[in-house]
Design brief:
Strand content: under 5%
Structural class: mainly alpha
Number of helices: 5
Helix content: over 70%
Oligomer: single chain
Number of strands: 2
Shape: rod-shaped
Strand order of the largest sheet: 1-2
Radius of gyration: 48 Å
Distance between the termini: 136 Å
Length: 171
């Protein structure tokens, strides 16, 4: 005889995919027992099915306190006692809250990383501009130095020519 661990499996053996009343269970049991009884059908494979049906019926009789629920995707499942159901609901809510917090934290991390990346790019841009400005300044200083040197040379030549005006006429 098969041993069942949950009401949903026992109901499936009796041909139900959802919760039904005790009268429907009793009627289905008696119908199946009559159909599969060894006296009605001598096929030994069919005769053994009656033992599974009897085990399912006995399980349902022995465990009326088990509650089940139907889920669209997976069919009936055992939920257990009310306190177990409440504990399961509490854990699911806590797990969902934690997932939501994790998603929010990940979103904030991504935003922060994007901000840091933008700041780094801005700093690199400022450093490049600063380097370019420094180069322009150095070039300007070099031109100024050359200009000052040229002006000093011109002044020296002017002063010399003022002191020696004859040198200008001999050339």
């Amino acid at each position: 005889m098969t041993t069942f661990t949950n009401r949903a499996d026992a109901l499936r053996v009796l041909g139900f995919e959802r919760e039904v009343s005790e009268d429907e269970i009793r009627a289905a049991y008696h119908t199946l027992v009559k159909e599969l009884h060894p006296d009605a059908d001598p096929d030994p494979d069919l005769a053994w099915q009656i033992y599974d049906i009897q085990a399912a019926y006995q399980y349902l009789q022995d465990h009326p306190e088990i509650q089940i629920t139907s889920r669209v995707a997976s069919g009936p499942q055992i939920l257990g006692s009310k306190s177990q159901i409440q504990e399961g609901n509490r854990r699911r809510k806590e797990a969902e809250r934690i997932r939501k917090v994790d998603r929010e934290a990940n979103r904030r991390k991504k935003e922060h990383l994007i901000e840091l990346q933008k700041e780094a790019e801005e700093r690199q841009k400022c450093l490049r501009e600063e380097e370019e400005a420094k180069l322009r300044h150095e070039e300007a200083v070099e031109r100024a130095v050359q200009t000052v040197r040229a002006m000093r040379a011109a002044k020296i030549i002017q002063d010399y020519l003022k002191e020696n005006p004859d040198d200008l006429s001999s050339q």
